[in-house]
Automatic annotation (TrEMBL):
Residue stretches making up the Protein kinase domain: 99-367
Sequence intervals crossing the membrane: 22-41, 47-70
GO MF terms, alphabetically ordered: ATP binding; protein serine/threonine kinase activity
Source species: Deinococcus cellulosilyticus (strain DSM 18568 / NBRC 106333 / KACC 11606 / 5516J-15)
Keywords attached to this entry: ATP-binding, Kinase, Membrane, Nucleotide-binding, Serine/threonine-protein kinase, Transferase, Transmembrane, Transmembrane helix
Entry protein name: Serine/threonine protein kinase
SUPFAM superfamilies assigned: NHL repeat, Protein kinase-like (PK-like)
Gene3D superfamilies: TolB, C-terminal domain, Transferase(Phosphotransferase) domain 1
Sites where the protein binds ATP: K128
Length: 661
């Protein structure tokens, strides 16, 4: 009886393997013969139990052999379309049973993509196969299989679908949805991306990322070349969300992972890497938010925030704060600019969630490009051919870009720029080529010419070489002419009121007048050759001068290179010899001093000085691109980057100013 029980147990285990079911059936037959022996030479009662065992073995063996389908990997492998590579003309040609290979449509560093037709329904598909050189590279193949397996289980309208894949025998392949289009990378190379398209593409990718994060995955390689746009849907209008597909999940992994290496470097593209990924630390869904922010930045600004070699970009990702994209493209709404900068926070905890990004996009708030009303703004003239007049807030953020050399309104980049009380813009230009062309021009908010006066010439009211302009709260306009050494006063209507100065050795005359500043009480003129600032009454009467000796007993004077006026009527004089802005009372008494630390590589042009409604001092070196910001007591508050050499600079104050005595 013990032997019968052992035969039964062994037979019950062996039937799970197809090749040994026959053995199970043979054991059942042996048991049946034993039963027959017992019946023939012993009692029926002793043969009852072996008879039951034999009946069970025969029945189960027959059932398993004939009717139960096999679910093991061998049958699954046989169901996949057979693929083979045939070398023709020195190249490997792909053949997959059930598919007609039409053409090769793409090739990257790891795989090649073929366009094919599925014969059973004539559907066009894309078939991705690893490059031949990677057939023996286990790391590349593992990434390929991971991408296929990941995409196979994802279903989202903005994610490229995988219908089937083979990872059992060479050649490996995946059969994917065919997206007839181009990558976002190629699209950006051919044309700028409109703001509505930026938002629609971002919304699609954001929604796709939110879906894969809900599946416990992190993409880790969000970049323009992995975002496809359906070409047959792209028209002259904006790109819609349904035209976007996110692809390439070759390095997508679980929500909290450490760095995965492929080859000798980090996985992912450094320009779009998050700082934590660039450092080789653990990443989660917030890393994808950063990468999406980098893609949005490039779409909006038309350039990436960082550039250089791999190591340089990695260093920038970890340590450098990117320049706001609106500094490169003033058409970007301020709210969109701010969202992108939040997504690019170095600390993952400070980045918005994908739900918040989607909410902002859907709210419509990101398309509002209105300029906020601020008590003070900076008006900066740069040497850029596009938007050379830039309006910044007091933190250095670009609010508005004006001016285009191609429009013909301005023949050259202005040498001076001030907002008038009525909101129009007064610019000073030097135009020697056009007859009777005004050097002082008034432009409206649309940069249309609405007025002009003081043409080039020797007649009354004309100018020869305009170098500086000042506008007072009482609407007086003072223009400084270097060639005639004269100051000419004009009304807003362009009528010349008076002129004063002339060539001489001081006390109301000049050798080389370079800069003018004024308020309703005084006019100050910087003469760089005489090394002094002369003070005049509004009607041009000479009052006094400000100058500094190099030493107590010396007659030589310090070099001066800038002048301005603060809200209290003090004159701000830039002393280049001591690298200070000296604040002097109207009577010429010293009030305070502001240290100007020289910046390495900064040009040696004049220092343009102005103040905002709170008395903060701004100083910009002509030809440099940094604007220093100081508190009223002279403490450095920050350095604002104009992103181009500054040629002229002023502060517009739009609120009544209350000045403490």
């Amino acid at each position: 009886m013990v032997w019968l029980i052992l035969i039964f147990v062994v037979s019950g285990v062996l039937w799970y393997r197809t090749s040994e079911r026959v053995l199970a059936l043979a054991l059942a037959v042996i048991t049946l013969l034993f039963v027959t022996y017992l019946v023939s030479f012993s009692t029926v009662e002793r043969a009852l139990t072996p008879a039951l065992i034999a009946s069970f073995l025969i029945g189960t063996s027959f059932y398993v052999t004939k009717f139960v389908p096999v679910k093991g990997p061998n049958r699954k492998q046989r169901r996949k379309p057979r693929a083979r590579l045939v070398r023709q003309g020195g190249e490997l040609q792909l053949n997959i049973r059930g598919y007609q290979i039409l053409e090769r449509i793409g090739e990257g560093g790891m795989a090649v993509v073929h366009l094919a037709r599925r014969l059973e329904d004539e559907k066009l598909v894309a078939i991705k196969v690893p490059l031949e050189k990677h057939f023996g590279d286990n790391k590349v193949l593992r990434r390929f299989v991971q991408e296929a397996a990941t995409l196979k289980r994802l279903e989202h309208p903005n994610i490229v679908r995988v219908f089937d894949y083979n990872a059992d025998t060479q050649p490996f392949y995946m059969i994917m949805e065919y997206v007839k289009g181009q990558s976002l990378e190629g699209y950006m190379l051919s044309q700028p991306v409109s703001v509505p398209s930026v938002l629609n593409i971002s919304r699609a990718v954001c929604d796709a990322l939110r879906y894969i994060h809900s599946q416990g995955l992190v993409h880790r390689d969000v970049k323009p070349s992995n975002i496809m746009l359906m070409r047959d849907q792209i028209t002259q209008g904006d790109i819609e969300s349904y035209q976007v597909r996110l692809m390439d999940f070759g390095i997508a992994v679980g929500q909290a992972v450490s760095r995965l290496s492929v080859g000798a470097g980090r996985v992912g593209t450094p320009i779009y890497m998050s700082p934590e990924q660039a450092k080789g630390g653990s990443v989660d869904a917030r890393s994808d938010i950063y990468s999406l922010g980098m893609v949005m930045y490039e779409m909006a600004a038309g350039r990436t925030p960082f550039a250089g070699s791999y190591d340089v970009v990695v260093h920038q990702q970890v340590f450098d704060v990117p320049t706001p994209p609106r500094q490169y493209n003033v058409r970007i709404p301020i709210s969109l600019n701010d969202l992108i900068m939040r997504m690019l926070e170095k600390d993952p905890a400070n980045r918005p969630t994908l739900d918040e990004v989607l909410r902002l996009i859907d709210s419509g708030d990101l398309v509002d490009n209105s300029i906020p009303s601020l008590p003070s703004t900076l008006v900066v003239v740069t040497n850029s051919g596009q938007n050379f007049i830039r309006v910044l807030d007091t933190q250095g953020n670009l609010l508005q870009g004006l001016g285009n050399m191609e429009s013909g309104v301005l023949p050259t980049i202005p040498v001076a720029c001030h907002y008038l009380p009525d909101g129009n813009l007064l610019v000073g230009v030097v135009d020697y080529k056009t007859a009777n062309a005004p050097m002082l021009r008034i432009l409206n908010s649309e940069m249309e010419l609405v007025g002009g006066f003081a043409p080039y010439g020797l007649k009354e009211g004309n100018l020869l070489n305009l170098v500086s302009v000042a506008v007072t709260p009482s609407k007086r306009i003072y223009a400084l002419d270097l060639d005639t050494c004269m100051v000419q006063e004009y009304t807003l209507e362009g009528e010349m009121v008076r002129k004063f100065g002339g060539r001489g050795d001081g006390q109301g005359t000049f050798r080389e007048p370079r800069m003018i500043a004024a308020n309703d009480e005084f006019v100050f003129v910087l003469d760089t050759q005489l090394r002094e600032v002369q003070r005049f009454s509004p009607d041009g009467t000479y009052i006094s001068r400000v100058a500094f000796k190099q030493s107590k007993d010396a007659q030589a004077l310090q070099t001066l290179d800038g002048v301005g006026v603060d809200l209290k009527g003090n004159v701000l004089v830039s002393d280049a010899s001591s690298s200070r802005i000296r604040v002097m009372s109207p009577a010429g008494k010293p009030v305070s001093a502001v240290l100007i630390d020289p910046w390495h590589g900064e040009p040696s042009g004049e220092l343009m000085i102005d103040v905002d409604h709170e008395g903060h001092i701004y100083a910009a070196r002509k030809g440099g691109q940094l604007i220093r910001k100081y508190s009223a007591d002279g403490q450095l508050m920050g350095m604002l980057d104009a992103l181009a050499p500054v040629l002229a600079f002023s502060v517009r104050r739009t609120v009544p100013v209350s000045v403490k005595a």
